[in-house]
Design brief:
The structure is a single chain. The protein is mostly helical. The protein has a domain at 35-115: Winged helix-like DNA-binding domain superfamily/Winged helix DNA-binding domain (Arc Repressor Mutant, subunit A, Orthogonal Bundle), CATH 1.10.10.10. The chain contains 7 helices and 3 strands; from the N terminus they run αααβααββαα. A hairpin with a 5-residue loop joins strand 2 (80-85) and strand 3. The longest helix is centred in the last third of the chain and has 19 residues, at 104-122. It is globular, with a radius of gyration of 17 Å. One of its GO terms (molecular function) is DNA binding. Residues 24-122 form the HTH hxlR-type domain.
């Protein structure tokens, strides 16, 4: 069996991540949200219930595999709900969980902070 791309349960990185997450609630929260695509997915679900293809179309550059992986992780971590409708072809949609909805004010504050400070970082030094 090919284990490429899978972390060993005994790896130092995984042990460190578990220790840090267990001792610091902020780090735990950031670990749940970390990754290149998770916040983009969550932001698109902030105002709407979306199907897989709608999420994919809103995020240029994400591969089908990566979108699937990120959606599974977000669902496993309780940040989104996945609803499968019994019809043919299958209809699946995604929406924020109550736990993720609680984060919206935090995201808004971070977004405002990013807006205020982006120009300071991105502008050339004079």
């Amino acid at each position: 069996m090919n284990n490429m791309g899978k972390r060993k349960l005994t790896s130092t990185n995984l042990q460190n991540e578990r220790f840090i997450s267990a001792t610091c609630d902020l780090t735990y929260a950031l670990c749940l949200l970390s990754g290149r695509w998770k916040m983009l997915i969550l932001c698109h679900l902030k105002d709407d219930i979306l199907r897989y293809s709608e999420i994919r179309d809103k995020i240029p550059g994400i591969t089908e595999r990566m979108l699937t992986v990120q959606l599974r992780e977000l669902e496993k971590d309780g940040l989104i709900y996945r609803t499968v409708y019994p019809e043919f072809p299958p209809h699946v949609d995604y929406r924020l969980s109550e736990m993720a909805i609680e984060l919206i004010p935090v995201w808004d504050i971070l977004e405002n902070w990013g807006t205020a400070h982006r120009n300071k970082i991105d502008s050339p030094v004079q």
